[in-house]
Amino acid sequence: MSAASTRRPLRGATTGPAVLAELHKLATVRSTWWFTGGAAAAMLAIALLASDDGDPATALAVPIATQAVSNFVQFILGALGIVGVTGEFASRSITVTFACTPSRTRVMVAKALVVGGAVFAAGFAVAALGVGVAAVRFDEAAGIGAAEAADVAAMGLYLALLAMLGLGLGTLVRRTAGALAILVVLLVMVPELLGFAARKFGLAWLETAADYTPAPAGWQLMSGRWEYALVLLAWGGGAVAAGAWALKVRDV
Amino acid sequence: MPSAPPTPSFTGMIRLRHLTKRYGDKTAVDGLSLELEAGAVTGFLGPNGAGKSTTMRLILGLDAPTSGSALVKGVPYAELERPLRTVGALLDAKAVHPGRSGRDHLRAMALSQRIPLRRVEEVLETTGMAAAARRRAGTYSLGMSQRLGIAGALLGDPEILMLDEPVNGLDPDGVRWIRTLLRSLARQGRTVFVSSHLMSEMEQMADRLVVLGRGRLVADAAMADLLAGTGTAVRGPALQPLADAFDSAEWSGPDELSVAGVAPEEVGARAHELGVLLHGLAPVEPSLEESYMKLTEQSVEYAADRTGRAEEGGTT
Predict the structure, then answer these.
(1) pLDDT band at B313; cut points 50, 70, 90
(2) pLDDT of residue A3
(3) Whether residue B138 is found in the same domain as residue B100
(4) Could you tell me the pLDDT band of residue A54, with boundaries at 50, 70 and 90?
(5) Residue B197's pLDDT is what?
(6) B137 pLDDT above the threshold of 90
(7) Given A111, A149, B152, B313, which is the most exposed site by the fewest CB atoms within 10 A?
(8) How many domains does chain B divide into?
């Protein structure tokens, strides 16, 4: 082998194998399936237990599923994104990952694509399960159509971008518990606190800022305002980019 | 012990230049310059904490050097395309996700390098891990983890193998297996770099010894030179004439004499000339412990000399 052939020819040329490796790794640990199963179980439980106490004329299936995503599923699939990288730091197998694929950017891109893709698929399936079960329960099955399919896709997209945010946080913090704590604070406490401060001090812009944090933006996205996908993409993409930067400047 | 490499040797398969790594105010690797050549097993020896693992991490680009450089075939590791085909490394046998099977661990590695998956079965077979391949890695003993790690190092059929303490946790059979494996890999013309904190492990494995202490190069010598300078032990009922014949002769017992620095052939011939009856004639090799002490003794002076020069020159 000459020196020339050992040099990297094209950047994009080898991201494919890294993606395959990441996909294989994600599929071959039990936690992936436990998280997905847990998300499905939580969704199913809500779809079965939610009560019909509103206006009988209002469709319930999509709001129930959206509620389940906001209250439970988002934490479970967000954690899946976190564990996708912190699991490797915990076992130190991250050293093997970087020995195989030395480019930190390439590893991060591969992980983001795999986590994003897998959580979109899982989130879509879980949301479809919830909408389907609730629709059957409340006799709305006949009314399910393209609009509901779009809602389900919005839930999948929200969860996928959230998992990417989790992945980025996990890469920055390197520990599951720490990253999970930050994610929960970001999703639950930050918008609450911003809203509280906005009312207390009469600062409307804080209210606006709260709307652009991941959970409220996700709520908007799942309510059919697709432009909020860009807000979430900024969160997810920003976290992944920060993670890639941290990998570059820090020792493994 | 070193056999002539049958394939043309690449020079400088791994080249370290003034490699230095500091963590805070602790210097793990201190101005290490080293060149590793193909077709030989280079033993990397030093006490725990001497900087062996850090050096290997720097070679793989896992940690960035504070200064200096580490090149693999003339380029930084990070610039190798499909690096496992050039360098197979085992740094930490337990660095495997505990929930993933050994086979799936290797498959992920293979996928990342476009290595056909049947190669995974081959290395599992070679390392005796085929039967355990379906089990989760968290259930493996340290010895099994080492074998899996070596399977991973062999996966890309690399020219360079770099193993950090590979015999840790292996049973005597496993130790012998590694020794034979590494020797045969070197005979095929590959570069084998293997660390240990035990001198005794290196004796039958390495062609060359590089000794590290506190991050500095303490000694660098061919194993053949280390084991040279043998003497001879003789046994017989009346050895006085022989004792008089050699300056270096010393009584090691009432009817035992050891002659340092003289080969058995010469001692035997002299005994024959003098008509001294011998009951035993055997070569004496210096214990490795002694060689090690000798090595480090030299290097203390060497290091002191280097420091002196560094102070004059202002650089290390």
Answers:
(1) very low
(2) 42
(3) yes
(4) low
(5) 82
(6) yes
(7) B313
(8) 2
Q: How confident is the model at residue B250 (pLDDT cuts 50, 70, 90)?
A: confident
- Looking at the fold, whether B161 and B272 belong to one and the same domain comes out as no
Print the domain residue range for A173: 14-249
Give chain A positions within 8 Å (CB) of B77. Answer: 102
Residues B115, B216 within the same domain? yes
Q: Which residues of B touch A96 (CB under 8 A)?
A: 95-96, 105, 109, 152
Q: What distance in Å separates the CA atoms of residue A139 and residue A136, rounded to the nearest whole number?
A: 5
Residues A162, A79 contacting (CB under 8 angstroms): no
With contact defined as beta carbons under 8 Å apart, do B90 and B153 qualify? yes
pTM of the model: 0.84
Q: Report, as an integer, the average pLDDT of B290-297.
A: 67
Asked if B192 and B180 count as a contact pair (C-beta separation under 8 A), the reply is no
Q: How far apart are the first and last CA of chain A?
A: 29
| Residue B312, both tokens | 């004059």
Spatial neighbors of A37 by CB under 8 A, at least 6 apart, are none
Whether A6 is covered by a domain: the verdict is no
Q: Which CATH number goes with the domain that contains B39? A: 3.40.50.300
Q: Do A24 and B73 touch (CB under 8 A)?
A: no
- What is the mean predicted confidence (pLDDT) over A93-99? 97
> What is the Cα–Cα distance from B32 to A69, expressed in whole angstroms?
55
Look up residue B62 and give its DSSP letter: S
CB contacts < 8 A, A to B, total 110
B297 pLDDT tier (thresholds 50, 70, 90): low
* Domain range enclosing B66: 14-226
B69 and B20 in a single domain? The answer is yes
Structure tokens belonging to residue B48:
């725990």
> Quick check: is B296 in a domain?
no
Q: Let me know if A59 is exposed, middle or buried by CB neighbors in 10 A (0-12, 13-18, 19+).
A: middle
Name the token pair of A244. 């890639």
For residue B311, pLDDT over 50 is answered with no
Residue B127 lies in a domain: yes
Question: Which pLDDT does position B87 carry in this prediction?
Answer: 97
Query: What ipTM was estimated for this complex?
Result: 0.90
Distance (Å) from the C-alpha of residue B259 to the closest C-alpha of chain A? Answer: 51
Residue A252: count other Cβ atoms within 10 Å of its Cβ. 18
Subunit contact B74:A251, Cβ cutoff 8 A? no
pLDDT beyond 70 at A51: yes
Give, in order, the Cα–Cα distances in Å from B104 to each of A27, A38, A168: 10, 24, 25
Report the relative pairing of strands B208-213 and B26-36 from DSSP bridges.
unpaired
The conformation of residue A187, written as its DSSP 8-state character, comes to I
| Backbone torsion region of residue B45, taken as left when φ is above 0, otherwise alpha when ψ lies between -120 and 50, otherwise beta | beta
Taking CB atoms and an 8 Å limit, are B112 and A101 in contact across chains? yes
Reading phi first (left if > 0) and then psi (alpha if -120 to 50, else beta), residue B6 is in alpha
- Among A43-47, A51-55, A103-107, B306-310, the minimum mean pLDDT is found in B306-310
Of B169, B202, B188, which Cα lies nearest the Cα of B44?
A: B202
